[in-house]
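Service request form, structural biology core

Requester: graduate student, group of Dr. S.
Request type: structure prediction, single chain
Budget code: on file
Notes: please return the result as structure tokens.

Sequence provided:
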Amino acid sequence: MFAYQRDRRYFAQMAEGLEELGAAELMRLGALEIRPSFRGLHFQADPAALYRINYQSRLASRVLAPLAVFPCYDTDHLYRKARELPWREVMGVDHTLAVFANLSNSRIRHSQYAALCLKDAIVDSFRQEAGRRPNVQRIDPDVWFSLFIENNRAVISLDTSGGSLHRRGYRRQGVEAPMQETVAAAIVQWTEWDGDRPLVDPMCGSGTLLAEAHMHHCRIPAAFLRRRFGFERLPDFNPGLWLAVKTAADRAIRAPGPGRISGSDAAADAVETARANLRRLPHGAAIRIDQLDVSRREDLRERVIVCNPPYGLRLTSPNGMEAFYRAVGDFLKRRCAGSTAFIYFGDRAMLKHIGLKPAWKRPLKNGGLDGRLAKFELYA
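Core staff response, request fulfilled:
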């Protein structure tokens, strides 16, 4: 029996700063006994809730099912303990695999070497039993395994998501500096947008914020386009229950109200990319995206405005970035009366150049950026 089968406890990886939102989301999807931890949330779930969380969570990056937990002080012990696991219960010799490892306060110093030891234990187990070994595939394997060692305590897990959940599947094309989907989904949730007022992204880039707002408003499951999940490899996977969970979620999808979501961008390639990405989602073709510089937009009064302005701009003037954000601030003050704006600053130093006092600001990491999300109330 694997560890998760004894207590039905799992671990949802979350980006830093999303833990509070993530805990509320997990609770809505049926999780119990939610407990924050390093880089995520521990929780308890029955099989239906596990499937539902993987299919509908907008904030989790991966959901891990622990297979074994044990003290671990060196790689020899790691290899021996891993060899004891019944790997044939979660994969076959013809399946491909990948292993990722993270270490914290461990006597084992190198995560790549630790991952290699776990991989060797898995393939050697198959070689001894079947006379041949499964292959490693780092891009799109059939099964993902996780190794986490903290304070010399090892947890070997199967990734029930089957790869990072931030890869929704709609973004086949991208432009420079796209926002990660889970971060965009968090921004949409922080807006508390309920569809009463139109939502607009006037600098939409490849359309990630628009897509996440559309999925939120239309109740489209976050993993709607995903072809397979890691939980299908669990020994107690219930196909009928999974079909029921998926069918119930898909039946809740609804069409957007007319003009509820729209966007624009100055770059023609960004507009075409955003349109193509949104067309992959149910009802996504209904979202209007125009090629238009933000300075030439009509007034955006009584709207919810979300945007991730381009950062790292290389403009001709010495103070190009500062001038750009001053122009954005002027547009918000003069043309957006009665609206509420949520602006992500990839370079948090630019906050002071927008010329507006935020109602609040939150630390929010996106990729390697330690940015800030700021809310601005634009009074009439």
